[in-house]
Amino acid sequence: MHSERVASRSADQRDSSRESRNGSPTLDAVSLAIIQQLQEDGRRPYAAIGKAVGLSEAAVRQRVQKLLDQGVMQIVAVTDPLTVGFRRQAMVGIHVEGDVESIADVLTDMSEVEYVVMTAGSFDILAEIVCEDDDHLLDVINKRIRALPGVRSTESFVYMKLKKQTYMWGTR
């Protein structure tokens, strides 16, 4: 029985490293369970995670490191922007002429831009911006984003109040 469980764990460890057809890692049930444990509490000890998912502490540590290295997940402290000095947030919809991806790449390098997604909707790009105040936001939008070659127009959606910010969507 013990050797079957060890063999099963070894197979699970191999499965967690396979890639799907689009090049992203294919995650097995154990890796998904580890992610779920860390989404509930990013500081949960590896020993507790191991007990919950049926692996040793060392095996969990290896799995977590691999998930981090593959870019599957990050472990970060999520803050309330207001409490750390960022009084203005906005989602900016951007219309682009030409190569959308090159504009998205430039946006990702801006420290104020927290989220960039290329869309198939009304805008070519949506970017979430976190700034110290209105003047800072105006500077980022007017002098840096609108000044990019290929940016045709922008529309800003200024956040009045943040009601919910969570990263607990699970591992469906």
* Secondary structural class: alpha+beta
Helical proportion? 25-40%
The percent range for strand residues is 15-25%
Major β-sheet annotation? 4 strands, antiparallel
| N- and C-termini, Cα separation | 30 Å
Mean pLDDT: 86
> What's the order of the H and E elements?
HHHHEHEEHE
- State the helix count: 6
Q: How are the strands ordered across the major sheet?
A: 2-3-1-4
Shape: elongated
Radius of gyration: 21 Å
Which ranges are low-confidence, i.e. pLDDT below 50, for 5 or more consecutive residues? 1-17
Give the beta-strand count.
4
Outline the structure in words.
This protein has helices at 2-15, 29-40, 46-53, 57-69, 100-108, 134-145; strands spanning 88-96, 113-118, 125-131, 151-158. The chain is elongated, with a radius of gyration of 21 Å. It has a four-stranded antiparallel β-sheet. A hairpin with a 6-residue loop joins β2 and β3 (125-131). It is built from six helices and four strands. α2 (29-40) packs across α3 and α3 (46-53) packs across α4 (57-69). Helix content is 40%, strand content 17%. With 172 residues, it is of the alpha+beta class.
Keywords, please?
172 residues, four-stranded antiparallel sheet, 17% strand, 4 strands
Quick synopsis:
With 172 residues, this protein is of the alpha+beta class.
